Amino acid sequence: MIIAQRANRMRILSAVLLALIVTVVPKTANAYVLMGEHVLELMVKALGQADTLEVTQTVTLSTADIPPASATLSETVRIRFPVDFRADGAGDGYQRQILMSGGRVLRAVNGVLQEGSAPRYARYADILMVKPRSALADYLRAMGVDVNVSSLGRLGDHYGYVVGARFPDENAAQLWVAKDTFLPMRLLLPPAAMSSGEGPVEIRYRNWTFVDGLAYPMHIVLWQNHQIKEEIRVDRLQVNPVLSGDLFDFAALRQAWSRPAPVFNDPARSLPEADVPRVTESEKKN
Fold it and tell me: Going by DSSP bridges, is the β-strand pair 201-211/104-109 parallel, antiparallel, or unpaired?
């Protein structure tokens, strides 16, 4: 009799404990998810500060854009934080130039100015540049990201904060930020309502490097409509180089880029020795 009563009490206690686990654990887990704007604040701090940046990188373009074969470009990117971005690339008989500053965009391919806006994936550097946190939040809102929504998600073997969506929802615009480093992992944008035929865009940031207090991804992959459009591998970084204002002069460059220019397989070879970016030792962090 006593043994039966004890067994019954144990069953009741086990049921009570199970009910507590079911009702309490989800609330406890949610309590540890940081708010979206707090995640952005920590991300801006993790990215570090600089006035300018020069990046030498190798870019592989997909066959969809450069038929019948893909093209590999040697490209130099110059950034003047927080909004000015310029890229000059050439290789495999192909040359492209792009200048972006805020909402303004100027693009040329083989000396021919391109009409219309740049593909959304071409703005891969924006989230690395736009500061402070309030400006970054405004930028993400303009891209359709609801910064008031956040959750925890898993991408392969990595965990991150998902700003803009409830994991595993991939239909909403969202920015993934690594849980351990607070560096960007992934930007996912649904099809653009204003651009017919343009599918979803995904940008992944990998193999982060720290140079002179600034963080930058050494490997960036750009997708559109579930296809890789470009793959970027960074060769060299130089933090705070002296950059002439002429590099970002829209009026002058619109005229200059309208004239055909010779195409070099390696644009660095055509630069004076003093202009070739120096090699900077860096600490890589995956």
Answer: unpaired
From the list 21, 30, 125, 110, the residue with the least C-alpha distance to 77 is 125
Q: Return the sign of the alpha-carbon dihedral for residues 90, 246, 256, 107.
A: positive
Q: For residues 255 and 179, what is the distance between their CA atoms, to the nearest angstrom?
A: 46
Residues 118, 215: one domain? yes
pLDDT in tens, the chain (286 residues): 555 555 565 555 555 444 443 333 343 344 479 999 999 999 999 999 999 999 999 999 987 667 777 899 999 999 999 999 999 999 999 999 999 998 899 999 988 898 878 899 999 999 999 999 999 999 999 999 999 999 999 999 999 999 999 999 999 999 999 999 999 999 999 997 556 567 899 999 999 999 999 999 999 999 999 999 999 999 999 999 999 999 999 999 998 887 655 544 444 433 344 343 344 444 444 4
Whether residues 78 and 2 fall in one domain: no
Structural domain that includes position 249: 33-285
Asked if 119 and 231 sit in the same domain, the reply is yes
Are 159 and 68 contained in the same domain? yes
Q: Which tokens in the block code for residue 278? A: 């120096």
Q: For the domain that residue 121 is a member of, what is the CATH number?
A: 2.50.20.10
Are residues 50 and 192 part of one domain?
yes
Is 8 in the same domain as 122? no
Whole-angstrom distance, CA of residue 50 vs CA of residue 207? 20
Helix (H), strand (E) at residue 16 = helix 2-31
Please give the angle made by the CA atoms of 259, 264 and 267, to the nearest 5 degrees: 95
Task: State the chain's maximal CA–CA distance in angstroms.
Answer: 99
With beta carbons less than 8 A apart as the criterion, state whether 91 and 105 touch.
Answer: no
Domains in the chain, number: 2
